[in-house]
Amino acid sequence: MMIISIGILAWNEEECIGGTLRSLLAQRLIRELTATGDVHVEVIVVPNGCSDRTAEQAVAALQAGAHALPEGAFTWRVESVATPGKVNAWNLFVHHFSNPQADCIFLMDADIRLDHPDTLGNMLCALVQDAQAAVSTDLPRKHIATKTHKSLADRLSLAVSGMTQAAPGQLTGQLYCARSPLLRRVHMPLGLLVEDGFLKQMLCSEMMRSPCDNRRVVRAPDASHVFEAYTGLKDIFFNQRRQQIGHAVYTFLRDYLQTHVGEKDAGEIIAENNARDPDWFCALIRARVKQRGRWVMYPGAFAVRWRRLRNLPRWRALLRLPVATAAFLLDVAVLVAANHRLRSGQLAGVWKDTKTKAL
Predict the structure, then answer these.
(1) According to the model, what pLDDT value does residue 251 have?
(2) Cα separation, 255 vs 253, whole angstroms
(3) Where do the domains of the chain lie?
(4) How far apart are CA 320 and CA 311, in angstroms?
(5) In 3-state terms, the chain is what percent helix, strand and coil (to 5)?
(6) Domain 2-229 grouped into CATH 3.90.550.10
(7) What confidence score (pLDDT) does residue 294 get?
């Protein structure tokens, strides 16, 4: 029997977690495969630091949906955590809450919709069928893609997404499926603002013992989810600032680990550091910022948009050039603001609650 553990990490998502869970329980992987007795699926929701009724809404949705599923082949529970933070919730789910016998682990955000009934099943098949793959992903789709009449801002947003998704080995923390033994070797340090790039690096480089191999990330066919895109200029700015700060912080961690990996791999080093001093990574950030002086952002930050054009055919790159230029101008303002915020050391409010009720 195959055991699958699905973790949903949630922070103040009472408005949308019910819809997310209903779309999850409608997946054929859960509704049909559990009925055969060949697969056991557990769903664990981890509300972290919530000040709303996320946990209660999750319980209600899972109780209502579980009645239609075979008893014993499907289990669920809600594990509320007092401390906010996705990284802390991730560590707890992967290393403490999920079934230690699980063959594969799915992780997903609490504010997405699975819009294809075979998304999870196709992601699982893509991972199982590719022996060298460490993690499988789907296609993230912005909710504005379904609008009949798109504004100029909508079209620019979708064009930027197309450039990003053209890059090889894309992994988004919104939804992915990984081999359990490999994922359990990963530990995340508290203070990591954006986990996607770090997780990809760990899974694709044997815990930073070898060069990153993008072929270890596979995108499943006929698998997708919808997420709410930021449409307001203020929300876009705050999100991009967080992403840029998060990537800069990740480079501090990557550089540190690359100089310390030896007898112990990167996952073991982080696990030991976390146990010894939960604040070790924040101390590392402060030290690196102090060393770098006035400009603390990562090298090549201003060239990211132009590098992504190289992943497109020449004719498409030419068509995307105006979009890349507009995105670059936004990047300049965002990077200056991110640099200022990182140098100030005030990172507590970087992750802003900007969601609406579009989903």
Answers:
(1) 95
(2) 6
(3) 2-229, 238-344
(4) 11
(5) 50, 15, 35
(6) yes
(7) 92
